Amino acid sequence: MLQKQKFSDNDHYDLPLIYNVNDHTHQFGHCEFCLISGFKFGWISFCNFRDGEITFRDRVFPKKIGEYVKNIDLLSLIEDEVRFTSLSDLDSIRVCLLLSLEVMFMGHDLGSTVDDVFLRMVEDLKDWNDFP
Predict the structure, then answer these.
(1) Domain ranges of the chain
(2) pLDDT score, position 92
(3) What is the distance of C-alpha 100 from the center of its chain?
(4) By three-state DSSP, how is residue 62 classified?
(5) What is the Cα–Cα distance from 69 to 86, expressed in whole angstroms?
(6) How many other C-beta atoms lie within 10 A of the C-beta of residue 104?
């Protein structure tokens, strides 16, 4: 689908996604994109996740207490079969969600640090899933 997307140099934040498929132009706004992708749409507020303990980091990366977790740390954990299988099912899901968010959706490289906001947010999967 991305190969069919048309380029637009308009910087407006509400510009629809425009695709050319079989010589027909299709436009999808935010609402249509959310219906198709299942992602939520709305205003973003990180207020509830700015402060507080980072229990996920402390539990999953005990050697990183008080330090930043990088994307490479998440990937290394997944690739280490012994460590990854020793995690609880929910913590293994949390690691995969964070790595997907950081690398696939946000496009950060493996050397980038994971924002503490996301480390706090992923602790409660209901909050994570409800986030727009």
Answers:
(1) 2-37, 47-130
(2) 97
(3) 5
(4) helix
(5) 19
(6) 9
